[in-house]
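Hi team,

Below is the intake form for Proteasome assembly chaperone 3 from Friedmanniomyces simplex. Please confirm the fields before the structure is written into the shared record.

FORM ID: S-0412
PROTEIN: Proteasome assembly chaperone 3
ORGANISM: Friedmanniomyces simplex
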Amino acid sequence: MATTTATSTPAYTVEPTPFPAPSKTTSGYANNTLTTINRISFTDRLLMTISQGDRSFSHWIHVPLAGASSSETVNPMGRNTNYSHSNLDEDDGDVDLLPRSDLTATTLLGGTKREDEIVGQTLATMIGSAVLMKRPSEERLLVLGLGLQGVGEMGRQGFEEVVGLVLDCL
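The structure came back. Fields below:
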């Protein structure tokens, strides 16, 4: 009895492609330490990591953007729409830098030191606010991994330097 060996040609071709999720990396100095920001845009979430030196990611936070982006009672600046802009001083630009009040950052892992948790959650809401300023219809979940050195002693200038690097990565 003779057997026939059929050679089949695949109906598809395999081509190497880069990682399927769009990503971006930015590096710079914040708080006198080399800081690296990575952003990976998945279809259901926006993953950002911020690391300094050889620190591991010790604090993970998430911020749901879906509820905030569909909110009609809060404008992108985080102020209530019934709040009169005329009540603000003309030169008071600091209010525009505040994170949106309708965003809630929740620690997933880490954040065992209270001062680290406060800085991390504030940073997460700042990033969420910046994402919604850039893309008001954004509905993905923001997940933020932090590996920062001396978070509690960072100070305002170091915090602003980290935020500046993050804005470059958005």
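SUMMARY LINE: Residues 71-92 have pLDDT under 50 and may be disordered.

Thanks, M.
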